Amino acid sequence: MSLHGRDITSIRDLSREEIEEILAAARKMIPLAEGTKVAHPLLERIVAMAFFEPSTRTRLSFEAAVQRLGGRCLTIADAGATSLRKGESLYDTIRMLSSYADAIVIRHPNEGSARLAARASDRPVINAGDGSGQHPTQTLLDLATLQEAFGTLTGLKIVLLGDLKYGRTVHSLAYALAEFGSELVLTAPPGLKLPEERSEEIRRAGGRVSEEPDLRKAIRDADALYVTRIQKERFVDESEFRKVAGSYRIDVDLLAGAKPRLIVMHPLPRAGEIAPEVDPTPHAAYFRQAFLAVPVRMALLTAVLGPAKRGG
Ligand code: NCD
User: Fold this and answer.
1) According to CATH, where is 3.40.50.1370 located in the chain?
2) If you classify domain 136-290 with CATH, what class do you get?
3) DSSP letter string over the chain?
4) What fold does the segment set 11-134+292-305 form as a domain?
5) Would you call 154 a catalytic residue per the annotation?
6) pLDDT tens per residue, range 96-137
7) Does the annotation count 72 as an active-site position?
């Protein structure tokens, strides 16, 4: 595989083998992410963080990954402070940025913006979330979390709960899980089901998908429960959001009916979907998941920015 110089705008940009290689490299990078070992494969490299939408974990874990590997970041953390406010197009902003940095990580509220950025940039572009579209690096760390817990990504039964309509993390993750041969059970409040074209895409990737509105039933023999936040910021009509707000909450009582080894995942931030009482239980995997963002993003950046393989 050579990911050198490649854009990663969708999880579909990576083959199953490439994903496996990134996850294997990420496992080796855990001590670097923890700071117990030091290596600087990104020395003298500059990575631009172009974040036009709020972010905590994604931006900071990308920055931690770059800096622990010896590189440096140029960061836009507030779209309001850029020339976009003066009417500059995203295309121009990214084109200019690509002459300042060796790679660009972008988050933007519009679906398709990462692809547009990739056209504007002659440096690799990594999508850190484009509206309700894709969030491929989140998927890589979600897969790393599952693999660490179960030693495999095949034959698992995963419940995807929450906002499956607007949630970009599930759009990327569902596709990848289907490719790896895991089974998906979808549980969504009314109006927030996975869009038909996404389920179609998953079925084409060979995925087994079913719907189970009853959460207790859905989790009974599941290996993982992937909880998502209702994406309030994507609703056109606030009253539609209020109808579904608070419609599900994971607590210890609910988990009593699950396998002892079931893990609860969440891309975070949570906004009341998981009761804090779940945190100290062995089910809670979401903070480990947030940590794994660092070694996974280290592995991806090193592959994209690192020296090209001989002949590759
Ligand atoms: C997610 C996102 O931005 O899509 N957060 C993240 O990157 N960890 C999920 C969310 O905001 O609900």
Assistant:
1) 11-134+292-305, 136-290
2) alpha beta
3) ---TT--B-SGGGS-HHHHHHHHHHHHHTHHHHHTSS---TTTT-EEEEEE-S--SHHHHHHHHHHHHTT-EEEEE--GGGSGGGGT--HHHHHHHHTTT-SEEEEEESSTTHHHHHHHH-SS-EEEEEETTS--HHHHHHHHHHHHHHHS-SSS-EEEEES-TTT-HHHHHHHHHHHHHT-EEEEE--TT-PPPHHHHHHHHHTT-EEEE---HHHHHTT-SEEEE----GGG-S-HHHHHHHTT---B-HHHHTTS-TT-EEE--S--SSSB-GGGTTSTTB-HHHHHHHHHHHHHHHHHHHHSPPPTT-
4) Rossmann fold (3.40.50)
5) no
6) 999 999 999 999 999 999 999 999 999 999 999 999 999 999
7) no
